[in-house]
């Protein structure tokens, strides 16, 4: 995806973790909504009806005129911000769907525990049973195998079996 150098969120967060990007998108969305609310308030103020005191109308009109001028000047920027927010939200939503579908958050936590030799909540095979992507399962098994200090002959045989079946196109896991 090319941002053309104008997409500040992309430039700032292109290598960031998903939760940080989601938070930044939320902040941008809130800033946009605040600007949108200000425009709505201005529209409401401009439609003020006749029984008000002339001084209040005059004061409000000059204040509203200044705000309206500022809003008109910033309208193209707001429209571009809205376009980018919509784009980022759509990308983030699609990514989140894939993260949930493959349980990447669970996989990340599991892989970190294996790498740090932290205890697991349940046996590894039971955790693997909940996964539905053979590549993810194989990756977890490889990480576990590579992080294991004492690998038994059975473990080595199991690993060889998995490797030979993955090369032949069979899904042993």
TrEMBL record:
GO terms (BP aspect): vesicle-mediated transport
Coiled-coil annotated spans: none
Pfam annotation, one family: Sec1
Family statement: Belongs to the STXBP/unc-18/SEC1 family.
Protein name: Uncharacterized protein
Organism: Oesophagostomum dentatum
């Amino acid at each position: 995806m090319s941002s053309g150098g104008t997409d500040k969120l992309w430039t700032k967060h292109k290598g960031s973790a998903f939760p940080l990007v989601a938070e930044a998108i939320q902040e941008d969305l809130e800033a946009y909504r605040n600007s949108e609310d200000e425009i709505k308030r201005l529209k409401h103020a401009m439609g003020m009806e006749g029984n008000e005191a002339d001084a209040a109308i005059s004061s409000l009109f000059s204040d509203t005129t200044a705000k309206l001028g500022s809003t008109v000047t910033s309208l193209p920027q707001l429209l571009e911000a809205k376009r980018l927010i919509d784009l980022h939200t759509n990308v983030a939503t699609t990514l989140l769907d894939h993260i949930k579908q493959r349980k990447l958050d669970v996989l990340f936590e599991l892989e970190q525990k294996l790498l740090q030799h932290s205890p697991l909540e349940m046996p590894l095979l039971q955790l693997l049973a909940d996964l539905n992507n053979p590549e993810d399962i194989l990756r977890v098994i490889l990480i576990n195998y590579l992080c294991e200090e004492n690998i038994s002959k059975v473990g080595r045989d199991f690993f060889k079996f998995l490797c030979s079946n993955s090369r032949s196109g069979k899904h042993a896991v």
